[in-house]
Design brief:
Layout (H helix, E strand, L loop, with lengths): L6 E8 L9 E9 L2 E7 H7 L4 E12 L1 E6 L15 H16 L2 H17 L2 E6 L4 H11 L2 E8 L10 H15 L5 E7 L7 H14 L3 E5 L3 H11 L3 H8 L6 E5 L5 H9 L3 E4 L1 H6 L7 H7 L2 E4 L12 H16 L7 H7 L2 H6 L17 E5 L11 H7 L6 E6 L2 E5 L2 E2 L4 H18 L2
Parallel strand pairs: 1-4, 5-6, 6-7, 7-8, 9-10, 10-11, 11-12
Antiparallel strand pairs: 1-2, 2-3, 4-13, 13-14, 14-15, 15-16
Helix pairs in contact: 3-4, 3-16, 12-13, 13-15
The structure holds zinc ion.
Zinc ion (ZN) binds next to loops.
Length: 441
């Protein structure tokens, strides 16, 4: 028996990502109960599913929803608060003082909703989050109807959210227990970084990760200073220290991974670790260039992330796609490095794989959830089109996103957010700007 189709998306082009190197022309994606149930030529689809709601996208390319593998969504409220500073000055003198004064549940909820609105409008359907008050973030994400991996954050220092690392972890794990049946949510353990988390806490995280079977999401090898300080404090580079504690494995998402020796690249490959590449953040904080081609050639799964809007300052995966391809070429000294196909995989299936969600999302295949983004090519800047994959990475921008579905639900239509009150979200953002501005950082 045929499934009762809700929606038939009739597209000029479909780039499913998997199988590789396939571009379908004049094909339809059929969605029923949040899942992709068929992909076939448009004419055959209209005949086979006469009762489906048809969405005609005659000049559009349809791709899997983009997956942002690393962000701190609530920090969108600190977009542009402090720029043009090195990482540690930026953190110690601006971001951490502002957070310690203002970051609470309301701040996190408002900031996360603002981030969801920005990301959805830009074709992102799923993100991997790390921030305080994850229960407030989860509330905003469920309100926005997006998919996300919620970080069970751990640091040693106290905040308004938790008193010490044990308190952070127990709160995170309790939240996961409460929300584990939410279909759009998954969870990661999220120790902030080797320089903010002790060996003892890492040892507990190794045990929890095995018990809960969840990824571990951590900033690592972001700057040269981080490595020098680790050698002074622990007698080992951060990755070596994590290896000694038993943290390296196929559930580890190493964010940034900028400063790596060839031996460390081999180590990440040997242990099946994933890397979240955040090219704009690395450039803005002058952290360096991650050796993306070498990592990929060694067999490391590399996904793409924006990092926060405080260090980017856009939650714009189209910018990251283009930069990842361009910097990959520059870093390798080879124009053939990181071709468009590989960049798009980093922003879709690779990021989904790192989150353990690749059986559900990351490509347009029958049986997967219907997380779908459409980009309208009927504009001079995207004309003519010889190869939609090339345009997606080198010519298109998030302003060209027209439609977005998450789990089969239409959340962006002709560039307009459905079900999210943008005016209200922006009013809340301005409320926080006035508060932070008047109160100082
Ligand atoms: Zn980050």
């Amino acid at each position: 028996m045929l499934p009762i189709a809700d929606t038939l998306i009739a597209a000029r082009w479909i780039v499913p990502v998997l199988p590789r190197d396939v571009v379908l022309e004049h094909h339809a994606i059929v969605v029923a109960q949040g899942a992709i149930v068929d992909m076939l030529p448009i004419s055959a689809g209209l005949e086979k599913y006469p009762s489906a709601r048809v969405v005609n996208l005659p000049d559009h390319v349809v791709i899997p929803g983009l997956v942002n593998l690393h962000t701190h969504a609530a920090m969108t409220l600190m977009r542009g608060l402090a720029d043009d500073l090195p990482l540690m000055t930026w953190l110690h003198d601006h971001i951490w003082p502002a957070e310690s004064r203002w970051a609470g549940a309301d701040f996190t909820r408002d900031g996360t909703l603002l981030a969801c609105a920005e990301m959805l409008r830009g074709g992102v359907t799923c993100f991997n989050d790390m921030y305080f008050f994850p229960e407030a973030a989860a509330q905003a994400i469920l309100q926005a109807r997006m998919r996300a991996a919620i970080g069970m954050i751990a640091v040693e220092f106290p905040s308004a959210y938790a008193t010490d690392a044990g308190d952070y972890l127990s709160k995170g794990i309790a939240l996961r227990d409460t929300l584990r049946d939410e279909a759009l949510l998954s969870f990661c353990l999220a120790p902030h970084a080797p320089y903010t988390v002790s060996d003892e806490t890492f040892e507990r995280i190794v045990v929890y990760a095995a018990e809960l079977d969840v990824p571990v999401h951590i900033h690592v090898h972001e700057t040269a200073d981080e490595i020098r300080d680790s050698l002074a404090a622990h007698g080992a580079r951060p990755l070596q220290r994590l290896k000694n504690i038993g943290l390296l494995g196929p559930n580890l998402i190493a964010v940034h991974a900028v400063h790596l020796t060839p031996q460390e690249i081999a180590l990440l490959a040997e242990y099946g670790c994933h890397v979240a590449h955040c090219p704009t953040s690395n450039l803005k904080l002058a952290s360096g260039l991650a050796p993306i081609r070498a990592l990929a050639q060694a067999g490391v799964n590399v996904g793409l992330g924006t990092d926060s809007a405080a260090s980017n300052n856009r939650l714009d995966m189209f910018s990251e796609l283009r930069l990842a391809a361009l910097l990959g070429k520059h870093g390798a000294g080879d124009a053939a490095a990181i071709p468009a196909r590989q960049a798009l995989e980093m922003a879709t299936i690779n990021a989904a794989r790192a989150l353990g969600l690749d059986a559900k999302i990351g490509s347009l295949e029958i049986g997967k959830r219907a997380d779908i983004t459409a980009i309208d090519f009927s504009t001079p800047a995207l004309s003519p089109c010889y190869d939609p994959l090339s345009h997606l990475v080198y010519a298109a921008g998030r302003e060209n996103v027209s439609h977005v579905w998450v789990d089969g639900e239409l959340l962006v239509e002709n560039g307009a957010l459905l079900g999210i009150d943008s005016a209200e979200i922006m009013a809340r953002a301005n409320y926080w700007r006035d508060k932070i501005h008047q109160g100082g950082t």
